[in-house]
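ARCHIVE CARD
Drawer: 12
Card no.: 0347
Subject: one protein chain, sequence and derived structure
Cross-reference: see card 0346
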Amino acid sequence: MHRAHATSVPFENFDSSAGRPVSLEPATLEDKFVARRRGGYCFEQNLVFMLALTSIGVSEVTPMLARVGNASSDEPGALNHLVLRVVEHGETWLADVGFGGGGLLDPIPFHVGAESDQSGWRYRLAEQGAAIVLQSHLDGEWTDTYYFVPQPAPIVDIEVSNWYTSTHPSSPFVSGVLAGARRAECCLTYYQFGEPTLVERPVGGPAVTSVVPASDVPALLAERFGIAGVTMNAQGRAVLAGESP
């Protein structure tokens, strides 16, 4: 289930980038992901996955808030990422289908020192003080992806973090357009804060960054990210057709 979700549901922030606050109500998420065939970002993706797990009888699914970036930084980022701790058949896992292009394909065992090879992509859990760090092996070294204190996050705290992420002017999810596609053979990331940019990293290889002509963006997002219906507005910004503010 984890790999199927991660490799088929696109990561995208077209709501927040268009000035629409992101709702985490289960009925709204079901309509967006299932009926409208949209994607979303971490809060939406992992809450939808949590609902899917509980619907098939997985009773211990705990959401936790995380900070993206270097766990040793003197300037920590906001709590703007959501992950899941899942207990099933006596085993505990870190699950995360909502990180975008560079996220997990499969769950990773939830204990410090655990390493996981996922179709050639390597991940491990490390420790930094009271925090647990997810690290990815990229370009020959281990790099912090995000870190979190392993404590349950009440829905009120998730709502506050989601509100900040989807509405605050300094949030990259408001100021830019972001999309991600996770495949077994590659990671794809699209971002637009100025020029439309594509970052492609093949398994075992370096990331390649290229500027995308604005006229090519709709086809790129449809064909490689699975995000159909994108147009470029008068400001040259990617928007979903019929859903711009």
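Annotation on reverse: The chain has two domains: 2-155, 170-240. The domain at 2-155 is CATH 3.30.2140.20 (Arylamine N-acetyltransferase fold).
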